[in-house]
Amino acid sequence: MYQLLNIIISKYLLSFYYYKDIILNKRDLIAKESGYLEKVHVMSYNQIENFNGLEINICKDEINAIENYFEPHDKSYNESKTEKKELIELNNLGYCYQYGVGKQKDEFKAFEYYLKSAEGGNSDAQNNLGYCYQNGIGITKDEKKAFEWYLKAANEGDLRAKYNLGICYQNGIGISKDNKAAFEWFLKSAKEEYSLAQNILVNYYQNEIGIENNLEEAIYWYSKAAENGNKGTEVNKTKAFNLYSVAAKKKHVIAQYSLGILYENGEGTGTDFEKAVYWCNEAAENGYQIAQYNLGLYYKLGIGVEKNEVKALEYFKKAADQEYLDSQAALGFCYDEGIGTKIDKTKALELYKIAAEKGHIGAQINLGLLYEYGEGTEKDLEKAVSWYGKAAENGDAAAQYYLGKCYRYGKGIEKDEKKAFEYYKKSVDQEYLDAYSALGYCYQKGIGIEVNITKAIELYKFAAEKGSGVAQDYLGDLFSYGEDIEKDLEQAVYWYNKASENENEAAQHSLAYCYKYGIGVEKDEIKAFELYKKSAENGYISAQNSLGFLYIVGKGFDKDLEKGVYWLQKAEINGNGVTYDNLGICYELGIGINKDEFKAFELYKKSAEKGYVNAKFHLGYCYVNGIGTNIDKKKGFELYNEAAKVENSDIVDFLKIFYENEEEIVKNLTEANYWYQKSADDDNNALYKLGEIYELGKGVNKNEIRAFGYYKKAAEMGCINGKYKLGYYYLHGLIVDFDKEKAFNLYKEAAEGGNSDAQKILATLV
């Protein structure tokens, strides 16, 4: 009967191999017995019937036999499962009493619970009981009994008990000393990844204890122990150094590399980068890919050897050709950044992809960046998000930050500010510096979380003190605008200066503005120009606009209309609203470029559509006066009124730097609107007033080019004050070329008209 039953069960179990839908994988088959029985136990009658169509058939009678066999075993299985659970609980309770965890420490009770569990067959408890007998914990010390319990636990498969048996044989605890037997038990435990056993095997192999001398095995087991965490003590480091030194001189490749690493880190010996390079080179020349990669790093960074990016690339390539993952990613980075070779984004993408698909986190992030910015491939934001996501799932802080940005702006994924906040926070929790500013901004503006200025400032300050240019710039903005904190222009300049030193282009632009207008610092137009130039060259669009503007005005340095238009056009390509407006003025007035009123109108329109207040006034002026378009006074006045509405103005925050309160801004915007409306009646004084408004920045952004244009129109219409102002531009070579004669004539006309300032200046020109 049992023989027949075994045949039937064999057929039943073998059928698992053929039946794809319910096949058990290798890990399932070697799982704990209880897990395996659960798999069998939950097979349904219908699933068993499905086996009838297989090559190895199970007849109806055989199915009944199987069911009859398993029915009583179900009951015993459940009982066994409950009993095992109880034994585990008894052992755990013993541990709690032994060490006073949640219980008052009581070694006698600990022993008692270990004994109950051990007698029931729990191997952990048997090992613990052996430890109690060995050390006299809760019982009289009895090394022989300790050995017996260790042996029982070891025979049950307990890896710690196997190690403890090795210790018993090594030191003669409860048994006669026997190095060979000790070695055998240590080896059994080591093969089950127990690091203490792995570490002790090194000594056995190296010193021929219970086994013949075998340096390769000694190195192998030391490496395994180190991988499993047994590497922290100075004794182990010294042991490693001595071991690797002997093996390295015998041309053992792994030992050569490992010795190099010990020299690099100063472990077991003094730090010596030159020796680190020497031994890594020895291993690399023998084809060891990890050493080749490490040698590439030495050459790339100039550690222990003269920096040589070409050689770094060469060694990265050697290791990458052997499919060493880190080196594939490093080689990709070389092509990405042009390290030791020309930039080749396509090649970088290929290498990143190889490494990323194998799970290299750095490669996944860099691949995401290439997809995000369309470098080496077409822009694909969804793929960028996918790769950031893979790296973020593995807990990478940088990837969490990038993924947060994608959710924040809806790049490649549906916009979700709460998720953006969550990912920024995860990144901050891992102290990723860039994420602090992003999270702080969320708290400042209420993005995915309630507004909390205190928290925002706390995050900004933490990152700023760690050298984050972005955080320093944000602090500068907070102190400049005085939002939710007291305005402090000196503090603003302090933080802008810090950020500028860290090459933050936004801060360089803000600091330049402070120097230009003397905000929180002594006015210095040359310094302002230098900072604008630096920021513009770093690609900051607003700075490109400002630099172009300065070249056209030529205040504080040589005027260059061509360079001015060049920088304005560069900023225009990047879609800056202020630039559209400034370039429009150049086209309208023919400054540095051929006059083109139609082009001017189009640029004003683009700028106005982006919400720029000045451009709305300028576009309105075009409609009222038919500049580049048909006259449409109604449309023009609508634009004037729209520009004067503070709640629709994106310039209000900016103007808060200059004004104590919003009421002043409202007043000046209203004044600007008034004079624009008056200018429609060909009122030359209104045009002069508009010039003054732009020269002084009253309710609008200061714009000397625009001011010049209105003064010129006012002067051409006979405005005495307009002629005086225009004379100033010609006398100082601002915007227009220096022309003393023209300046004299304009001052003369203004003086004859009764302008006292013109009369005084005229006296100095005669």
Topology of helices and strands:
Elements lengths: L1 H17 L7 H4 L3 H9 L3 H5 L10 H40 L7 H13 L3 H13 L7 H13 L3 H13 L7 H13 L3 H13 L7 H13 L6 H16 L3 H13 L7 H13 L3 H13 L7 H13 L3 H13 L7 H13 L3 H13 L7 H13 L3 H13 L7 H13 L3 H13 L7 H13 L3 H13 L7 H13 L3 H13 L7 H13 L3 H13 L7 H13 L3 H13 L7 H13 L3 H13 L7 H12 L7 H4 L6 H18 L4 H13 L7 H13 L3 H13 L7 H13 L3 H10 L1
Helix pairs in contact: 1-5, 5-6, 6-7, 7-8, 8-9, 9-10, 10-11, 11-12, 12-13, 13-14, 14-15, 15-16, 16-17, 17-18, 18-19, 19-20, 20-21, 21-22, 22-23, 23-24, 24-25, 25-26, 26-27, 27-28, 28-29, 29-30, 30-31, 31-32, 32-33, 33-34, 34-35, 35-37, 37-38, 38-39, 39-40, 40-41, 41-42
Under CATH, the homologous superfamily of the domain at 81-175 reads: Tetratricopeptide repeat domain
Q: Could you tell me the number of beta strands?
A: 0
By helix and strand content, what is the structural category? mainly alpha
Cα gyration radius (Å): 40 Å
CATH topology assignment of the domain at 81-175: Serine Threonine Protein Phosphatase 5, Tetratricopeptide repeat
Strand-residue proportion: under 5%
Architecture of the domain at 81-175 in CATH? Alpha Horseshoe
The average pLDDT is 82
Discrete helix count: 42
Distance from first to last alpha carbon: 133 Å
The low-confidence parts are 1-63, 69-77, 646-662
Q: In one word, what is the shape? A: elongated
The portion of residues assigned to helices is: over 70%
Largest β-sheet summary = none
Give the C-level CATH assignment of the domain at 81-175: Mainly Alpha
Protein name: Sel1-like repeat protein
Pfam families: Sel1
Family: Belongs to the sel-1 family.
InterPro entries: Sel1-like, Sel1_AlgK, TPR-like_helical_dom_sf
